[in-house]
């Protein structure tokens, strides 16, 4: 597996972290669990009260949920800021099921609450923060309350010397682990972390030697190890960035390697830790760790490590400071301002403003799921938009998610500081499909083409196809999509009477609710004839420099079907005999293994400055790879390389050339849906163009490519440095595909000495009679 540490988004000022929590889930159930196809959570927040400023800490207990933060009042659902406000000084209690304010709990603190935890028996609420008084009683940054009566404990009175940012009771309830900004705890030297008795508050021996602020503490269920995260850079005077995995007795032995980066221009820190996937075989569980990076492109995704051994399990490299994590029904949920997940399989490329603040991931691999509600970023000090990070803390009662932060909206609706996402499917319908395009190039057949839509918590959607004059759907198509990954779908309506005319509509369903119908297609007349199988003639008519059908059943030679005898050579990693894309053709196609599969030209040529590349491909890869390109090396990785079409991890296509700067066209749709597609890329005096399935998907005014001699290569070559995100070289190639070699099937590769017109590209596709 890759264990690169990437660089990340510029972090905002140090913000207090809420207490990390332990969440025990069944390991066998979780071992193969990808992010849920059937959602554990609705993506629609339920009605709840809200706050007038940031929520930093949340803990549910006994049907109630305690909320701490920087707020000084709370207000009813839907109430605009400043209306209906009820005073609450940094700590409030809401009803878990209704979200309503509990009026009987109203302690008066003189500073914000940044950490909350509850005793294992649910009787005691522990609070930490920057307060020094609760009412008139002195409490040095720590306090305890009865969850039943709300009364302040008169016997639990340990004192920290500075604000507390993390609290974690031991699993047996005997002690409370404390982290924060302090150097003294209960009158004794403690470097940012310590342990006190849960009954008397007396200081215990646990004292990890750290040199910086602690934001997070999580304890293994068997209390063998304690995970501590924060802004420190050393442990026992030795470099150890952001997180340690120490013994629970003295806290002086660490078994976790230094995984968080710390170098010029990049310093990553830890904001939250949860522990899950506990079993008899692994009683200490797996730790899931949220990172925040300071510096352009600095690592601020999340990652997982075995608590007992410290061994890295996986790493998710999305950019956008990760603030909080929670596990619900064997799914990991993440709060961040993820803005670039292009390197992650199934992830999304850099977005300018539509950060994905709420995501779900597989516990086993960290890959992204389909739960995708959103918040705004808010502001950590004033509550206004675009000054904060959005979500700051997540908690669960095992069923629902409780979200806090500096957001002011949830899913575009006003909701400040606090939100509840309940269990169960989202009743919001999926998006409405756009107007379908319908063609009829074969006798009695209409082909309906449309773009998939997305749903905020369901990945696999069903599309019903309707024909005018028929009430019931005439067929269905099923496909998986994300908001950033929308495949193009096709449906063939067969048995139509030649000469008859029809319109079509499409409706999407998530299994619970459905969209309205799409706009109607244009009227189409059903063809009465089958066109001749003319794809070969269409290609040859445009005088290609070479045309490799890739239809050989044996041997190493990829024969040129043009008169130019520019043959290719099959290298290892390719296998013959795949089904070809053209309907009725006896030809076969070539399978590429995604690791070494390559077909390359047998001789060197000068790189053309005016050309077209055409290729048919079919794949379900989520690691991208080169389809066709030009490079200066015969078999090894090229040192000069451009004039290529490649796929990004999420299935988007890129056409690129280089002439001093990288010039690219990136498709908005994805094409790793397991269907045949035809890509055509052109460069000429009028610039660059990229076509997919006969339609132009993008242009670029650049009209020059790099001058060098080289070889045409199909299936793989160097793509290092082909980085489409704005971080440039500092992000270490986030938008480069995970693999430079393509895993899938290809056929009918042609390169032309001129730029094909849009009409010729469309004519090639119309002549193909695609088999899917």
Distance between the termini: 33 Å
Helix/strand structural class = mainly beta
Shape: elongated
Q: Could you tell me the number of beta strands?
A: 62
Q: Percentage of helical residues?
A: under 10%
What is the fourth-level CATH superfamily of the largest domain?
Answer: YVTN repeat-like/Quinoprotein amine dehydrogenase
Quaternary structure annotation: single chain
Largest sheet, described in full? 9 strands, antiparallel
Strand fraction band? Answer: 35-45%
**CATH topology assignment of the largest domain:** Methylamine Dehydrogenase, Chain H
Please identify, by name, the CATH architecture of the largest domain: 7 Propeller
Tally the helices: what do you get? Answer: 3
Taking all Cα atoms into account, the compactness measure Rg is 29 Å
Mean pLDDT: 89
User: Regarding CATH, which class of the largest domain?
Assistant: Mainly Beta
Q: If you had to describe this structure to a student in words, what would you say it looks like?
A:
It is a single chain. The protein is mainly β and 772 residues long. Strands 47, 48, 51, 52, 54, 55, 56, 57 and 61 form a nine-stranded antiparallel β-sheet that branches. The chain contains three helices and 62 strands. It has three domains: 7-421, Methylamine Dehydrogenase, Chain H (7 Propeller), CATH 2.130.10.10; 437-525, Immunoglobulins (Immunoglobulin-like); 535-766, Sandwich (Jelly Rolls). A hairpin with a 2-residue loop joins strand 24 and strand 25 (266-276). The chain is elongated. The model is unreliable at 1-38, 382-386 and 728-733 (pLDDT under 50).
